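Because showing beats explaining, we let one protein speak, sequence and backbone structure tokens together, and leave readers to judge.
___
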Amino acid sequence: MSDSGLPKLEVGDIIQALDGVCNSQVDAAGSTKPLLECVVSGVLRGAVVMLGGEGSEVRNTDEYVALMKKLIANDIVLLAIGYPVTVAQDAGLLNPEAKSLCGAGLERVCDLAQIPPVLPLGGLENIGNVVTIAQALSGDSGLSIPQLPVVGCDAAGVSKQAVDLGNTFVGLGVDTFIGIMPYEGSLEDVVAASGLVNGAEAKHTVSSDLDELGDAIIADIESKRNAIAI
């Protein structure tokens, strides 16, 4: 358990679990290479880091859960940190049995590795673990972080914390998707007022419709896959 009391897997726990999908003849245990092999082969399409502040319950939870289910149904594994851990836990998505909601590829990975489709990383004080995982994936793949089919998402709504986290992820080169509440005026004005800033190698995508946000996430991951020919 993390200091926040949320369920938490350490980076080492995740890597150890992924050894369960490792072909010992070709894959190196104790690394992210089994995960990378699943992504390269298309068994997994990519990963989404879902994050949010503990006090950000500003959106209907059913919408949030529907977004998570949409992503795992499309063979996208979720790494949850902060408020999304609570959402996933309450919806039963931290249970191995949730594999039945996944696409065939992610379901197989969950079955072999004995993991749920949403992996909890605890509270936001553990945000550095996301960077550690991204750096490990980059090092093991030989790809830069912006090239990886990995994106960030804060679906709960624009708050100061969401803006800070979104700008941090974009600064790392990770495209980030922000769910915003219904608004008046132009979207451009809302984004400008929020303080969200695109980076040199990554951008923000915002939408008040989480189903549309899910479509944009899936399209972004597929675009990254096409760019590196996998």
Summary: The chain has one domain: 11-227. The mean pLDDT is 87. The radius of gyration is 16 Å. Residues 11-227 form a domain with the Rossmann fold fold (CATH 3.40.50.2030).
